[in-house]
Amino acid sequence: MCKSDKFSHKTDCTQAFVADDLCHLSTVRHVILILSGKGGVGKSTVATQLTLGLKAAGKKVGILDIDLCGPSIPKMFNLSNQDIHQCSEGWLPVYVDKEQTLGVMSISFLLEDQNDAVVWRGPKKTAMIKQFLNDVYWKDLDYLIIDTPPGTSDEHITVMENLKQYNPDGAILVTTPQAVSVGDVRRELTFCKKTHIPVIGIIENMSGFVCPNCSECTNIFSKGGGEALAKQSGVPFLGCIPIDPQITQTTDDNQTFAQRCLNSSSMSSIQKIVDKFITIDKDFL
Amino acid sequence: MADIPKDAPEHCPGTDSGSAGKASACQGCPNQTICSSAKPQGPDPAIGEIKNRLASVKHKIIVLSGKGGVGKSTFTAHLAHGLAADESKQIGVLDVDICGPSIPRILGLEGEQVHQSSSGWSPVYVTDNLAVMSVGFLLSGPDDAVIWRGPKKNGMIKQFLRDVDWGEIDYLVIDTPPGTSDEHISTTQYLSQTNVDGAVLLTTPQEVALQDVRKEITFCRKVNLPIIGVVENMSGFVCPKCTTESVIFPPTTGGGEKMAADSNIPFLGKLPLDPRIGKCCDEGKNYFEEVQESPATLAFKSIIDKIKDYCMKRREQIETDTGEENR
């Protein structure tokens, strides 16, 4: 009963806001950013898994890919050749399922050829991201996960500036254990502090590889860097994700990522984070 | 300020400045209307200055990849070490990754500072014949973030290319951030008259990475940047205990080799995943000295030789071309 009250209240808000052009994000209850100073540490993979985890928990989830030069999210969901449709309210995200509980938006849907390069300088990227934030008609979402490119530049500044009015829940920082990667993530932490975005925590990805033959665990990219950084900067540590070649296979394969991903050992780390969110969410209600 | 013309009136704000043509010093200046009009101002004069500055650099190689974390900086560092193994050659490394400079750490130069002299910024030296420049040397601490939008990054890159005093060097290796945006457009634009030898594209075997590297190939073709070839990094992992090779990033679509063949560009080789490489990078050590004989060392050497050959051939080609023109 309490829950339905909450929802009806939410719809009222939506209707009140309809006159305003910038209302789409106000219907989204939680906004979570996935950040990392470093590239190739698994931002998109973590974003995908988190989305799937939340969806499995019965939430309505959207995922927005603001990596304009190297969008990977559509590939993860096997949506590479889809197009965006427009309705009177704005752009409709591409839905993964018929029930429309998982919507995806990425620049890759706007490209004619997947090999097309988006050779844009900052201002053009900024305009595109603003459009993504303002014009996508997400309908009522429980969670919006925003996947970002590496760095602390145009894309990041723009997304922070435009999200401020919607009070994003915070950012999850992804790193790999090596010092080279942790060094860049430290800078991202400074960025979060400077832009006043709360840090939900740090995830250490690619934390070790278990040889399928002799089950010897090798730390290919060393170990513990993410945890040490979390401790040092007083940010919660959300867990280690081991290297699982199955994950890359699933991200690449035509089989649905979701089915195989949920069996992966790395999913248990993600599941903990999802559970955390769900409990926090219940507290709110 | 570099953009003030020599014969400008006193207190000229500079032709590139926002108040060009609008400051009080501009009143009565014959060029006031030109400065204040919003018309595009033609090619950046810095392009010419960069051409002069880099005339003393024989070969320029850009290391690119659309994808992040595939090993651009690691490869750049090893390429530089490999080239510098020949003591008669002078090598320079320029890191244009403004937001995530990794080169200082990988080359063991964290905490170093850049010095300024009358001839420009002096790079930091790893060995006598290996000079390095990176935005990392300009930061006050490891927590410092460079939160800059495009134009500021471009200004920095321009300064790196124009104001660093490399001296006579044989190879300048340029390490880039992932993507196809400001840093890449600026670097290629500023270098457009300096005859860049070409770009080495780094990738890992998975389709998710290849997909971004294909975009980078499109970029290179759009800006007329020659491609030296593709290097596939993290190709396989040999377990140190049982020496079974595992594929960590499976090449579900044929990997870098097939992509290179499909896009008609040379494939330079595969580099195996060796935890010792990552360790050496973290500690700033030279992997070639730490681990003399390993499959990775051999793979690196063969790739570096291919790049050397390419540069030599290109140089000869250019010399015969210009020689014929002169006749």
Automatic annotation (TrEMBL), chain A:
Gene Ontology BP, a term: iron-sulfur cluster assembly
Keyword Transcription carried by entry: no
Cofactor(s) needed for function: [4Fe-4S] cluster
Main localization category: cytoplasm
InterPro entries named in the record: Mrp-like_CS, Mrp/NBP35_ATP-bd, NUBP2/Cfd1_eukaryotes, P-loop_NTPase, YlxH/NBP35
Residues that bind [4Fe-4S] cluster: C211, C214
UniProt xrefs under Gene3D superfamilies: P-loop containing nucleotide triphosphate hydrolases (3.40.50.300)
Residues binding ATP: G37, K38, G39, G40, V41, G42, K43, S44
Localization per Swiss-Prot or TrEMBL: Cytoplasm, Cytoskeleton, Cilium axoneme; Cytoplasm, Cytoskeleton, Microtubule organizing center, Centrosome, Centriole
SUPFAM superfamilies: P-loop containing nucleoside triphosphate hydrolases
Annotated keywords: 4Fe-4S, ATP-binding, Cytoplasm, Iron, Iron-sulfur, Metal-binding, Nucleotide-binding
Cofactor: binding comment: Binds 4 [4Fe-4S] clusters per heterotetramer. Contains two stable clusters in the N-termini of NUBP1 and two labile, bridging clusters between subunits of the NUBP1-NUBP2 heterotetramer.
One of the record's GO molecular function terms: 4 iron, 4 sulfur cluster binding
GO cellular component: axoneme; centriole; cytosol; nucleus
Assembly mode: Heterotetramer of 2 NUBP1 and 2 NUBP2 chains. Interacts with KIFC1. Interacts with NUBP1.
Family: Belongs to the Mrp/NBP35 ATP-binding proteins family. NUBP2/CFD1 subfamily.
Reported function: Component of the cytosolic iron-sulfur (Fe/S) protein assembly (CIA) machinery. Required for maturation of extramitochondrial Fe-S proteins. The NUBP1-NUBP2 heterotetramer forms a Fe-S scaffold complex, mediating the de novo assembly of an Fe-S cluster and its transfer to target apoproteins. Negatively regulates cilium formation and structure.
PANTHER family found in the cross-reference section: CYTOSOLIC FE-S CLUSTER ASSEMBLY FACTOR NUBP2 (PTHR23264:SF19), NUCLEOTIDE-BINDING PROTEIN NBP35 YEAST -RELATED (PTHR23264)
Protein name: Cytosolic Fe-S cluster assembly factor NUBP2 homolog
UniProt organism field: Lottia gigantea (Giant owl limpet)
UniProtKB/TrEMBL annotation, chain B:
Compositional bias segments (type: Basic and acidic residues): 1-10
Record flagged with keyword Mitochondrion: no
Sequence positions that bind [4Fe-4S] cluster 1: C12, C26, C29, C35
Region called Disordered, residue ranges: 1-23
Residue numbers binding ATP: G66, K67, G68, G69, V70, G71, K72, S73
Cofactor needs: [4Fe-4S] cluster
Subcellular location as annotated: Cytoplasm; Nucleus
GO cellular component terms listed in the entry, alphabetical order: cytosol; nucleus
Pfam families: ParA
Annotated GO MF terms: 4 iron, 4 sulfur cluster binding; ATP binding; ATP-dependent FeS chaperone activity; metal ion binding
Cofactor info, note text: Binds 4 [4Fe-4S] clusters per heterotetramer. Contains two stable clusters in the N-termini of NUBP1 and two labile, bridging clusters between subunits of the NUBP1-NUBP2 heterotetramer.
A biological process from GO: iron-sulfur cluster assembly
Classification via InterPro entries: Mrp-like_CS (IPR000808), Mrp/NBP35_ATP-bd (IPR019591), NUBP1/Nbp35 (IPR028601), P-loop_NTPase (IPR027417), YlxH/NBP35 (IPR033756)
Annotated keywords: 4Fe-4S, ATP-binding, Cytoplasm, Iron, Iron-sulfur, Metal-binding, Nucleotide-binding
Domain of life according to the entry: Eukaryota
Positions of [4Fe-4S] cluster 2 binding: C239, C242
Role of this protein: Component of the cytosolic iron-sulfur (Fe/S) protein assembly (CIA) machinery. Required for maturation of extramitochondrial Fe-S proteins. The NUBP1-NUBP2 heterotetramer forms a Fe-S scaffold complex, mediating the de novo assembly of an Fe-S cluster and its transfer to target apoproteins. Implicated in the regulation of centrosome duplication. Negatively regulates cilium formation and structure.
PANTHER family: CYTOSOLIC FE-S CLUSTER ASSEMBLY FACTOR NUBP1, NUCLEOTIDE-BINDING PROTEIN NBP35 YEAST -RELATED
Quaternary organization: Heterotetramer of 2 NUBP1 and 2 NUBP2 chains.
Family: Belongs to the Mrp/NBP35 ATP-binding proteins family. NUBP1/NBP35 subfamily.
Protein name per Swiss-Prot or TrEMBL: Cytosolic Fe-S cluster assembly factor NUBP1 homolog
Species annotation: Lottia gigantea
